[in-house]
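Form 12-C: Joint structure prediction
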Amino acid sequence: MVADLEMKTLIIGSGPYAVNVAKDLLEDGNEIIIASKGEVAPINASETDGIDPASILTDTKILSCRGCAGDFTILMGSGGKTVSKKISGVVIAEEYERKPNFSAYGLKPAPDVLPLSFLTGSVIIVKDTIKKLPQGGKIVFLTGLGYESNPVTAEEIMLASLKLQTDFNLQTYILTGNLKVAGNGLEKLYRETKTAGTVYFKFTNTSPLILQDNEGKVSIELIDEITRLNFRITPALTVVDETISPSGYLKELALVFGLHTGADGFLQSGNLHRTGIYTNRKGVFVAGPSRSVLNAADNITDSANAAILTSGTGITGIKESKPTAEIRSGSCIRCLTCYRCCPYRAIDLDIRPSVMSDACEGCGICFAECPRGAISLNLPDNRNAADEIRQSAGSIKSSPLIIAFCCSRSAVRAKELAICMGYSLPENLKVVEVPCSGYVSMEYILSAFQNNAEGVLVLTCHAGNCHSEDGNIFARNRVEQLKEAFSRMNFKKERLEINTLASNMGYEVAQIVCNFENNLKALGSGDLKKQKEQK
Amino acid sequence: MESSNVLVIGGGIAGLTAAHELAKLGVKVELVEKEPFLGGHAIQFTCKAVESCAKCGACMAEEKLNQVVHNENIRIHTEANVKKISKNGLFNYTIQLRSTSYSSSADAVIVATGFDTFDPVKKPYGYGSFKNVITSLDLEKMLRRNGIALKPSDGMPPDKIAFIQCVGSRDSKLNHLWCSKICCASALRMAHLIKKRKPETSVTFFYIDIQGSGKDFEALYQKAKEDFLMIRAIPGDIYKSGEDRLKTTYFDSLSKANIENIYDMVVLSVAMIPGSGTKEIAEMTGIIPGDTGFVRSFEKGGISNSGGVFVAGSAGGPLSISESITHAVKTAWDASKYIKRFRNYGG
Amino acid sequence: MNQTEKVIGIEELNHRRFKTFPFSHDFCITCGLCSSSCPASGIDGFDPRMLVRMVGLGLEDKVVNAKWPWICTMCGKCEHVCPMDIRIPDLVRHIRGLREKAKIPGVLQKGLEAALKTGNNLALPKEDFIYILEDVADEIAEEPGFENFKVPIDKKGANLLTTIHNKLVNTHTEDLKYWWKIFHAAKEDWTITSENWEGTSWGLFTGDDEAVKVMAGRIVEQMKRLEIKNLLWPE
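Section 2 - Result
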């Protein structure tokens, strides 16, 4: 715990968004540094007024980040030199990269074929382009054809279309697959555009035929699916939508900070345990265009909230007391397995790795993965897993003993729910509750069998829903390795199973354990070594 | 400085999230919920994972519940209603419990009164008359309870199911000119779940525009187009067919004919509408609902005029569970910022 | 792409052609509820959603010359289920009104023109009309209980004026007897006018508001002339 924290927040970004975040933070009384890979390019120069130029580092790349929330040491490479800064919190605020979808529509950029940002950008450029259009010229917007669009793009297109119809009296057409109106006020906006004269063509089973001649002129032939009539549109201007993508720099930042990324490259993986601007690493936040495809209002909210979170208790938080891992330096061989597998980046590397208890969430992945068993982690409430496994050996009844390692977030709650719902569970089911399935080491599983379990279940959260991101993956790998080993021994691999669950799956958990019990009964006991008798 | 207090009205996913987030920041929370249970709608929803987490957020209700119930900074009242709120620097309020009432004060108020589901009884689908015409919420509860879809009439699994989207949403006649955002993905996921558990089930999906975006959604939609019959038209009346089956027709633009189909069960994806509780609390606090009936923070009027009344979650408009959580987290941060300012400048 | 179908250049269309129509048709989100509920969907290859779409696009020729607007019974089911409250029956009627008079199907225009010219669809002269009425009245008077039955024509100051559907003095004269007997038994003070007595107003079906105005105007005129306060218009 760092007392009298010197709150200095590092904002990583080079565009107007980073500048906005900086301003919000400054307004809240925070000290900031902006680190930009290139120049800092706000919308206009005056935007950086009020920010001490000394706190803006340009041409700066982040090299490494050590420490934990409230006490980071960040190495940056700036103009050939390496700079080290003490930072309390980090906000990643890179801009979007908007990639025009010309090729998705079979088009090449041309004077009359423009990307959407053109119409949402500087007012002067837009007005000139529009003025040059011929009288009665048609404007066609292409979005979400052959892939799904999104409400942010839909809103931009509808607003642009509305403006073109009402202010410039131009006829606009929007060609799309599914019209995305799942956003505040979008249904109303849709109506407004139609009242203003926008014509929509929606495609389900057909696609428009989009052709472009050598001079770049576009002609579109389509079937209107409602009337089944064929139309040809020769637009004076064709506007193509863009894929709103994360900045290319995010990949590097993810590696430096040890952050999980989503399938689309943003710095949140969609894991429900990370909401708002949180990442898997405490003290490192991701805002707006670095986090997800968001509309302007949501981006602004993220920025405002970065300000709140990066001060005082936002960084340290009121820590819920839980056991943290400890590395016995005498046994540690510095293989760095723990460092590499910690999802919270709670391992600090000095001469020997050590656990930063402020950052440790007690998941147990390092404990289970350490090849030397050099890491200890107690269970909450002074429980001891080894003891619990041993104690179950004494309770032999008529039905097979099943030891189930249950993640406290999902399986344990599901089991309680099953009981509430009135589903019956096997009478000889012994639950060992673990903070994360990543805690379930191969040793514990084997110990369970050694203590007379006829079957062992490992019940984890669903893939993508593990609080530790990969705890369930680690567990699965271990189970599969053991099953592989069993299959080469005279030991039925069906005795070990892994299933994924959520906390509200009462019916399913009952099904799983009951089916497991039935399978065990069918397996008989030929491959089981009779243990020492009950004492 | 003594610790600050916040009154959170509503114990659904947004209320629970806001309460927990505030508690983490050291704020004391009083949570009031009118039902005898916490978790609102989210806790009645089913897990929709098929191969991996579907990110629907239903399990988060249990998670949040667990966090809140064990947190010593949060005081919970269920079967309780806020009867009165007035402002005199602080917000003074009275809560009606089952047999007593209780008064206290708070630095800020968070309205997390959530939504109601649209009752489709007036729509021509026979909801309320035909047992096997159910709403999406009915289906959620059914799947959560039983793991598979079962016909309410005889408890047997249906062979043919139809989903009708946008029932009560995108409806100017009802003054619901909004899209409820979550129903397309939610219904598609439930359909996938049903089909996973009983592969022989046939699913027809009637829609206007499929909502949803992002990489996860593309995969989901692709699979839906392969496994279900996706029809871009909304059917008219539902009639009884035979003993226990349901007949409905829709117009197919390609063949230019009305096509009749018979189903065992029809699921109506009903709209999210402003909650009845929201209106009452809005009146008390002066956050005047917009023309949609949903409310927003920072509205001027009544005791909210100088700030301090915030809206979290779907009381402000249709949101998915994960969006409600994000929204509520942000509301908690806004509230804490307000309190800090309020305290700094005196009140 | 169906190559045999004609391709319409979008510049040929004036999307604002029907903009002034007050039927909210540009609110359409093509949900298809109207078509799914319409009993006439698919007839002649048309349906209400298609009609609304054509109006929105400005395809004037296609809608005005189509048969379907005349097949539609304006039952109103479509409007009832439409979530955007689009007044489709009114739209249908308005489209009918755009058609060249000579191309209006069936007897509608002929009957209407006769009514505008002569006061009734059949161009039935006044004397013949009165003759038929009195003939029916005589038959009623032969029945027990109706001995002194008379049909009041052009009675000034009567309480109730009633119009006559032309079929009642043509092919369905017997039907007059039912309600005339009720009037008699109820001791109602009623009357029929000898001119402009036509109860139908086929401008309603042909979308001809001017004609409807004329027909209604004539009845009002009669009521003023005969100083009658109440109108029974059983159409």
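Section 3 - Comments
The first helix of chain A runs from residue 16 to 27. Chain A touches chain B through 64 residues (CB under 8 Å).
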